[in-house]
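Usage

Read records sequentially. Each one opens with the input sequence:
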Amino acid sequence: MTTTFDTSHPDVARVAPRDLLDQQLYPPINLYRRFVRRDHEGFNQALLEALEAHKSYWTADEDREESVEGSLALGLLAIGYLAYDAGFPIEVESPYLPQHFRAGAGGAGAARRTARGRAPRGLRRAPPHAGRTRQPLSPFLPFVPSAPDIGLHFVITRRVAGASRGLYDPFLQALRESGTSGLILSGDRTEGPLLSGVAAGPRPPGRGTLVRRGESPRLVQTAFVPVAPSHPREHQ
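and closes with the structure output:
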C-alpha cells in the first residue's frame, strides 16, 4: 500500500496526464490510505479535498462539464461507504455524492463540511444502498491498466461455483483484460471456461491449472507450509 501511494503521487508518476493524476487517480488512493489507518479526521479532510479535485477536473472545459461521467464521484463514494460501515463519522457534503449518502452518513448533529459548487448536470439520486460494499474494489478500477507501473498488486480468491457469472464484475473483467495470472483449482466443470479457455474440474486438494499470459496452461501442485511465529515462546 505504501509503495502504491508513493509511486502514484502526481510528482512521481508519469503514466497519465497531470490533471488526471492530480484530480482523479491519486485522491482515491490517498483517501483509502486514511481509511486503512483509521484516521477519522484525516479521512474527512482528504474526502473534502478529493471532491474539490473532482469538481475541478469535471468543470475544466465544456465537454467535461456536459459529460455524465463526472456527475457522481463513484470511487470516492465507494470508499466513503466502506468508511461509513466501519464507523467513521462522515462530515462532508457535496453535490457529487448522492443525497441519501449526504443525509445519512453524518448522523444527527454532526459537524458538516461542504465541498461547494453547483450541482453537476445530469445528477440523479442513486437508489438506497447503491454501491454499499457490493463492489468494494471499484475505487481501484482506474488503476488496473497502470498497476505494473505503480507497483499495485491484487490477490483475489473466490469459489468456482458461480464464477462464470461473477467474472463479469467490472473489476474482475479489467483484471482479465490486463492479462492477469490465475490458478484454477477444483470445481464444477459446468461453470465453463474461466481464464484463457480453461475450465475447472475435480482435482485433489491443492492441484490446479496455472494460467499465465503468453504461456500454455500447466498443471501445478500447491502446498500449505505453516509459518513459524516470529518469537515462539519457550516451553518451560
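Summary fields computed downstream for this record:
- The CA atoms of residues 182 and 208 lie 10 Å apart.
- The beta strands are 92-93, 113-114, 182-184, 193-195, 198-199, 207-211, 218-221.
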